[in-house]
Amino acid sequence: MAVYLNGNEVEESQALASAAELLDRANLPLIAGLMTDIAGAEAALTLAEEIGGVIDHAGGDGMARANRLMREAGSNPVSLGELRNRSDLVVVLGKKPLETDPDLLEKIFPAKQSLPRPGAEPRRLVTTGAKPMALPDTVETKSIDIRKVDLTTAVGMLAAAVHEHPFGDPKKALPQALLELAGHLREAAFSVFVYSPDELDEPVLHVILDMIRRLCDKTRSGLYTVPVPGNGDGVNLCSVWTCGLPVRTSFAHGDPVHDAWQFDACRMIADLEADALVWIDAFGKGKESAPTGVPTIALATPGTVKPKDADIVIEVATPGVDHGAALYLPEISGIGMVKATGAGSGLPSVASVLAALSDRLKTTEAA
């Protein structure tokens, strides 16, 4: 295991001692990124409660929108199994779903025969704003170009067409394509909208939900939210069953308090409200970087965080690769155990490092 302190490789005990001193001095520390398995999330929540810190996930923006939508307006979610086996019209909104999961279309449209579907119409796929590299040849497909307007406007136009309200000039290509899609949605036996909350603002999510409920007056419709990378859905569920609240929760005053805006880790650092950061990235995708501006302890897979980019860097194992892990699995819409697929790196898990840091903190406080 490689451990770095101020860019120099040191022993693990020295790094843990420095990390404990850093957190012990902090007035309001953050535990963010949180791209880890369920055991790592539980250890992070325990540490946050012990040090009076704030927890946030790298995908916190989209998760906050989805949480508020569910809380304020409810939802009409479908599982991946329902989407794959029962839907006859799939509408992918925006670019993010296929960027987040390049294999998404293969999961939705498997080569093997699926279960019996409602209705007699053939399966259709419509993408808006994205041109997939490979389209399934077993379904009727169409891509709607929305470069003339943004995705928000296109969703509003589609909702107006579903509600059969006139809009724009029906002779123009974009409105005509959306009018045709609205007609297919009204005729479909089971339509599903696929999107990523990272790409859509909250008012747009309400428009989509309202459109789905209008369709459900006469047929069946639902939504499928692409899982948040870095086990975001699993971490969020873990937070809820652990302290009763989703991520972006503070333990600064003892009892947990949730506020999606106030406890946004990036905003807190930018506004000088936090003075220490524990950044966790055990999956090493390299797409999310730790915010800068405060002393940082990084728990990350090798090569994800450069030694000079954080005060303390501790290399950790990858869940589901180096060790078995409990993760959110879209296939079952819940938490499942994943066996290690690799031979094991010999690196410690996030949970074990956080537990060791917690023990060192207790020793520091006692001293």
Notable features of this structure?
367 residues; alpha/beta; Rossmann fold; Dimethylsulfoxide Reductase, domain 2; 2 domains; nine-stranded mixed beta sheet; five-stranded parallel beta sheet; 12 helices; 37% helix; elongated
In short:
The chain is of the alpha/beta class and 367 residues long. It has twelve helices and 16 strands. The chain has two domains: 3-59 and 230-366, 3-Layer(aba) Sandwich (Rossmann fold), CATH 3.40.50.740; 65-225, Dimethylsulfoxide Reductase, domain 2 (3-Layer(aba) Sandwich), CATH 3.40.228.
Low-pLDDT segments, ≥5 res: none
Looking at the structure, the CATH topology of the largest domain is: Rossmann fold
Shape: elongated
Name the helicity range: 25-40%
Supply Rg.
Answer: 23 Å
In CATH, the architecture of the largest domain is: 3-Layer(aba) Sandwich
Structural class: alpha/beta
Largest sheet strand order:
2-1-14-13-12-3-4-10-11
Which CATH class of the largest domain is shown?
A: Alpha Beta
Layout of strands and helices, then pairs:
Layout: E1 3-5, E2 8-9, H1 12-25, E3 29-35, H2 38-51, E4 54-55, H3 60-73, H4 80-86, E5 89-93, H5 96-100, H6 104-108, E6 124-128, E7 140-144, H7 151-162, H8 173-187, E8 190-195, H9 202-215, E9 220-225, H10 232-243, E10 249-250, E11 257-258, H11 265-270, E12 276-281, E13 296-300, E14 312-315, E15 325-329, E16 334-338, H12 350-366
Parallel strand pairs: 3-4, 3-12, 5-6, 5-8, 6-7, 8-9, 12-13, 13-14
Antiparallel strand pairs: 1-2, 1-14, 4-10, 10-11, 15-16
